[in-house]
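Chapter summary example: a protein plus glyceraldehyde-3-phosphate.
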Amino acid sequence: PLVSTGELVSAAQADRHGIAAFNVITLEHAEAIAAGAERAGAPAILQISENAVKFHGGRLSAIAAATAAVARASSAPLALHLDHVESVDLLHQAHAEGFGSVMFDASKLPYEQNVQATADAVAWGHERGIWIEAELGKVGGKEGEAPLDAHAPGVRTDPAEAAAYVAATGVDALAVAVGSSHAMTERTAALDHALIGQLRDAVTVPLVLHGSSGVPDDEIRQAVASGMRKINVGTALNTAFTGAVRAYLAENPTGVDPRKYLVPGREAMAATVAGFLALMG
Ligand code: G3H
Ligand code: ZN
């Protein structure tokens, strides 16, 4: 069934487990996430990023409706979330398109402007019952971004600044920069677990880990144990999908029916989803 991100994350916060959120680009992603969640017997969040909306020609409706339909038809509790929204215009489409939650991403802006833009997004969302996540610090590594020096000042999230940010904006959850980076195809990131503990103690809202594709299993388990609540995974699904499609096409160079290679691609994503869900505690 279709449930809300707010209820899944609140339950995770109360019970100290994690909720995995997976990025949907195509219908096959949504179907694979539902299949993986059913297999694992766990809830999950289906999230569509602003970049994925751009891939669909700037049109949110079709992929949102398809993803919501997959969630409604599933036996697993699945929520629909709009991810990494920088455009206020896209934020304002969330309500009409059936999203119960949005990550509004003003993390590229200087602190004061990030606070102002995020506070406005929260005010808009809360008037409509929409749960809002925002980012302080810079996870980095998104498409088109220069790689970050993870040790440079202002890159990792500062605990005192995080407390002030949450108080000033009223966000429902906070995405923090603690050593992960977006779009990693190898799982080699090392998280700053001491910083995760400090952030957990500094703010009352649930913490969100972005760029989890590059984080090894044990580090994810440890992050959940020390208070990380929403675990965002995107690239790992694409790595699995593309690997399976590439292998199929290499072995079958003359076939043309897309179903022949999308089936192993989708199955590889479902197995990856089930693997991440097993780490949620
Ligand atoms: O918001 C999406 C996630 O942070 C995904 O990051 O593609 O590196 O797993 P990833
Ligand atoms: Zn992210």
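Key point: The pocket of zinc ion (ligand 2) is lined by residues 84, 139, 182, 210-211, 232 (CB under 6 Å).
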